[in-house]
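re: the backbone from monday

yeah here it is again, tokenized this time
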């Protein structure tokens, strides 16, 4: 019951945000935020689900604070969408890896899974609203294809981008790229 309530809550949140994005009224509140702490908070939300589904979670986070100017709520939403997808589209090898890389000119947050993967010819299409690859529709028929569109918008609002590397049957890696000002 808790899992389904969480799913419906994320679904409703995505629908409402999609409407704001389309109307160009989505507002962001930027503040200096420790992304290591933010990632830990999001992972805590998923801890029960990951344990109950027997996922292996690998965290590669710096041992110090990594501060960047972001809207923490929207970045939590972006990470929630990426982790939720990693869970939904996993294969028998249930492993998710989260990494933060701090560079002189950017900070990257990477979410990697060993799931079904995305065919190369569809990788640009997955960021369109309501688009889902056929394998995703089969595995998780309740999704509507808004999550990655919202993540892309959030990253653009932060002056960053989302990158994807994936191969069918080998999993996917999504990287949130935040430029240093």
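seq for it, each position gets an aa:
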């Amino acid at each position: 019951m808790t899992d389904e309530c969480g799913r419906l809550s994320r679904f409703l949140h995505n629908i409402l945000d999609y409407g704001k994005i389309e109307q160009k009224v989505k507002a962001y509140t930027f503040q200096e935020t420790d992304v290591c702490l933010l990632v830990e908070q999001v992972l805590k939300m998923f801890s029960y689900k990951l344990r109950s589904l027997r996922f292996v979670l690998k965290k590669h986070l710096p041992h110090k604070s990594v501060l960047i100017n972001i809207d923490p709520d929207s970045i939590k939403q972006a990470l929630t969408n990426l982790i939720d997808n990693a869970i939904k589209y996993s294969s028998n090898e249930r492993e998710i890896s989260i990494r933060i890389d701090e560079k002189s000119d950017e900070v990257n947050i990477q979410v990697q899974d060993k799931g079904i993967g995305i065919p190369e010819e569809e990788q640009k299409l997955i960021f369109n609203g309501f688009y889902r690859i056929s394998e995703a529709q089969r595995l998780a028929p309740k999704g509507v294809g808004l999550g990655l569109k919202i993540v892309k918008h959030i990253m653009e609002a932060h002056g960053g981008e989302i990158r994807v590397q994936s191969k069918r049957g080998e999993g996917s890696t999504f990287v949130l790229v935040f430029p240093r000002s």
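The chain has one domain: 2-179. The chain has a mean pLDDT of 85.
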